[in-house]
Structure formats: structure tokens, C-alpha cells
Amino acid sequence: MLAHGELRLGGTGLRLKIQKLLVLIAVSCSLLLLWNAKNTALTTSPRYHHAIARPLPRYWSVTGQGALEDVTDWVKPEGLRIVGLVFFGRPESVGILDCYLKRNLVSNGGLLDEVIFLARTTTQEDLEWLDWLVAGEPAYTRIDLLFEGIDYASAYDVAENGTMYIKMDDDLVFMEDHAIATLVKTKIEHPEYFVVAANVVNQPSLSWMHFSLGAVHPYFPELLPPPPGQNKTGSLWRASELPRWHGPVNWTVPHEFDPPFDGHRWLPLPKGYPLDNTPIANTSFDAFSESLWHWTHAAQQHYSFFENLEKNELWRYKFSMLDYNYRRMGIQMIAIWGDDIIASDIHNGNGDDEYHFTEVMTERTGRHAIVDGRALVAHHSFLPQRSGMAATDALQRYRAYALENICPR
Predict the structure, then answer these.
(1) Domain assignment present for 232
(2) Rounded Cα distance, 103 and 351, in Å
(3) Looking at the record's lineage, which domain of life comes first (predicted)?
């Protein structure tokens, strides 16, 4: 009987062990499902859209109108290391920029050996997203910065002699295929320039250039939501699919104008409508022009850009070299040598990297800051423009274009 009792006790013990094991497996599966749900929600949310990690076509080509000088056959010099520096803080736009960065990696036929994301945020959710992005691409690196206000000096502590850096804002939402190659080639061939900048759509002084060159078209914001069923989300980027603007006769955009509703579009005005009656007419060639402070300037430029992009008329923005002659120049995307960053002693400045590189150092060295007008990129918004631009569907349109034409397939 004792032996039989021991056998029954052993059977009960075995059943208990099996039950515990099943409970453990169930808990583990639940945790795994929760983890997957969190990451799926995080990475598929429109706010955190990113490129799917699939191989890019291995090519490097420049086609279409507007290239003033061919850079198609330019070969990266042996041993030259090129690193992208992205000032990270906004996953909404970095999810778009990521497509262009991957397209420009050495592994995909581009020029970037590495991309360093300089984290200037303490938002944990955004940092977790960045970790996910970096984990999926061997050429990506995250570095956290100690920062306060507009002090950007610590961002450049990564600089090394002999390396060329392509510094980029994290809300660049379009980049021509040959933009980086053009900046690098110009910087190498013209060591007399301290920095070489891209030709940036929505940058205060260049807004005046683009207006003067005829690249900005008459657009007004739609004043009322479109009828139900009509596209208003920006799932399509083509300007030709926008309806014509209609509204009160002789209406103009007020100087201080609040967005009419979230997700609104800017719509084309009739052909021949005078640009003098639109926001862009108030811009000027100045780093602190009206275009910096008013989101309406940015919106008109972005929707004009979609029109030019669809028509293959980016040549409208192009020029050769624009020398800023010691004036402040935007640095939303620039090429600069690590040697010059180190020698600039930026920590002994006021922390304003744009002022330091384009005014202080150009005066100190006699080496100018220039824009290469062939390298076109688009910049979403400055801080004073941000809330207004967030109420448009422009970012969704840039995302739609990137998904269709740029992102890995």
C-alpha cells in the first residue's frame, strides 16, 4: 500500500509540474503577444511610419531635367569616409527621411558609410522607436546628446579628422538622388569653401530665390472640409488630383492666419492668378525673413513643390553657386569636413551652430559658405511654422511620394 501511495503521490507531483509548465507557457505567450502588439502599433502608426527593411536596387543614377552638371559618373575617392549626422527628435519625419538615407548608403550604391542619429529628445517612446530603427540597419548609430535650448555644440563632438560629414535636419522629407553626391563633389573640388549647403525648399532666404525663379505657384488653403468621400488625407501626393480653390471673391490669406481645420490641403488658384496676392510675396532674401515665421509661406512652397515634382520641373529651383559672403546661411543640409568642425572650437561659441559655421568661421578663415543650387532637398518646417504645418496634409503627401518612389521594396 505504501508503495502504491508513493506512486500516486508521484503521479500527482507530475501533474502539478505539467500544470505549472502549461501556465508558464501561457504567460510567456501572452507577454510575447503584448510585446508584438506594442511594436506593431509603434512601427505601423502613421506617426512612426518607417521603411520596410528590404533590399534596395543597387544603382546610382541621375535622370530628368535640371542637373546643371552631370555627377552620374563621379566616383567616391578611395578611403574617403562620409558620415551623415541627423539631429533626431521627430519620428514623424524621420520615418520618411529613413527611406532617403537607406537609398544613399554605400551598401545600396550611395556614398554614406554611416548615419549617426544625434538624439536631442528625452521622450522615451521616440527613443524606443529610434532604437528599433537603428537595430534594423548596421550602418545606423544612436548617440545621445546633452543639450539645453539652442546649444548644439555637443552634437559635433563626434567629429573626426579626415571624415566628411553631411549634417541634416531630421525633417528633411525629400532629397534628390544626386544631392549628396553633388555636395561631396563640390566640397572636395572647392576646399576654399568652409561649408557647402543644399538648395532647400522652405528655407527663409532661399524661399525668396525660389519665388524669384518662378518655382512657387499661387495656392490658397481650402477653407472648409471637402465633401464626404473626397480625399483629404494626402494618401496621394500628386497636385493634379487637387481640386481648384474656391472661396470669397478678393479673399487673401491674412498675415496672421490660423489653420482652417486639421488635415486641410492647399489648393491651386486659377492660372495667371497674381503671386503678389499670395503669402510668398512677403518673403525676402534674409535668414530671418517673413518665411521663417509664417507657416503659410511654408505651405504654399510645399504644395508648389508637389506640382513641380509631378511635372518633372524641379529645374525651376536650380541655379549654380550662391555665395553668402559672410551672411548667415541655413544649414538644414550641409557638407563639412571633420577637420574644420574640430578646428572651429564651437564649444567656445554661443551654441548656435548655424551662426558659428556660416558667419563666425567664414569671417575668421576667409572661406565662404555657399549653396550648390543643383542639390535640391525639401525641409518640412521651422519651429514657428510647426503647428500650422502640422494642420496640413503635406507630411502625408511626402510620405506617399517616398513610399511610391524611394522606400525599399
Answers:
(1) no
(2) 32
(3) Eukaryota
Q: Tell me the residue range of the domain where 206 lies.
A: 48-210+313-405
Residue 284 lies in a domain: no
**Count of C-beta atoms within a 10 Å radius of residue 304:** 24
Is the pLDDT score of 286 beyond 60? yes
DSSP code, position 56: P
Write down the pTM of the prediction: 0.84
**Residue % of the chain over a pLDDT of 70:** 79
**H helices, E strands: number in the chain:** 12, 11
Q: Where are the beta strands (DSSP E) in 54-158?
A: 81-88, 114-119, 140-144
Give yes or no for residue 42 having a pLDDT over 90. Answer: no
273 lies in some domain: no
Measured between alpha carbons, how far is residue 257 from residues 254, 294, 350 in Å? 5, 9, 33
Q: Name the phi and psi angles at 195, rounded to 5.
A: -135, 150
**167 and 189: one domain?**
yes
Contacts of 264 (CB under 8 A, 6+ apart): 221, 222, 225, 232, 391, 392, 393
**How many domains, in total, are found in the chain?**
2
307-358 pLDDT, tens digit each: 999 999 999 999 999 999 999 999 999 999 999 999 999 988 888 999 999 9
Q: 149 and 62: one domain?
A: yes
The span from the CA of 218 to the CA of 271, in Å, is 8
